[in-house]
Design a protein that fits this description.
By secondary structure, the chain is mostly helical. It has two domains: 88 residues, Orthogonal Bundle (Rna Polymerase Sigma Factor, Chain: A), CATH 1.10.1740; 81 residues, Orthogonal Bundle (Arc Repressor Mutant, subunit A). Helices cover 78% and strands 0% of the residues. It is built from eight helices and no strands. Helix 5 crosses helix 8. The longest helix is centred in the middle third of the chain and has 34 residues. It is elongated.
């Protein structure tokens, strides 16, 4: 596996593969992927993310960045691994931030729709049913006011209670993209909810 301090022939190989990949040579890009991906996954992403799917998503994003930014990389005598490791670390940090924000947004959302849940506490069944009816009506109104993509993300994840992976598949996006869409959807939901109950 190629690392940070490489002999000139290894660095030349990296630069040549990169140059060919920029020209559309898929095999050259595949060679770079095979050389660096296992180490990035095992040493950078899994220790930071701890989940296989998240690490794979971050790895994919890291190599997408390599394709997009390869023309801007300067050949300063260092291995591409140093640049890739920095990008991978940043992707992992971004995912942590999204997870944290998503957890807060989810807690807020769950608090808003708590009366819809089966175990909602109330003084009596009539009052509980009336509360559920009002909350359900407001939820429906708020969802109708949202961007259709946001509405679908919330419906799949919370009203249909589908796992994240299935939600992403049904929306035809990557799991990481679904997480970002859901976070934005929950924020939009809260803003719309508060505009009605402010």
């Amino acid at each position: 596996m190629r690392g940070n301090s490489q002999p000139p022939d290894a660095l030349d190989w990296e630069r040549e593969c990169l140059r060919r990949a920029q020209g559309g040579d898929r095999e050259a890009f595949a060679q770079l992927y095979r050389a660096f991906a296992p180490r990035l996954y095992a040493q950078v992403l899994m220790p930071r993310l701890g989940q296989r799917q998240a690490a794979e998503d971050a790895l994919s994003e890291t190599f997408r960045m390599l394709l997009e930014r390869s023309a801007d990389l300067d050949a300063d005598g260092r291995s591409l691994y140093a640049w890739l490791a920095r990008v991978a670390t940043n992707k992992a940090l971004d995912m942590h931030r999204v997870r944290t924000r998503s957890a807060r947004a989810l807690a807020n959302f769950e608090g808003l729709i708590a009366p819809l849940r089966e175990g909602a506490e109330s003084a009596d069944a009539v009052e509980r049913d009336a509360t559920r009816g009002r909350v359900r009506e407001t939820v429906d109104q708020v969802l109708t006011a949202l961007n259709p993509r946001y509405r679908r993300a919330i419906e799949l994840r919370f009203l249909e209670e589908q796992p994240r992976e299935l939600c992403a598949a049904r929306m035809e996006v990557k799991l990481g993209t679904f997480d970002v869409v859901l976070l934005r959807a929950l924020r939009a939901f809260r803003v719309e909810w508060e505009s009605r109950h402010g």
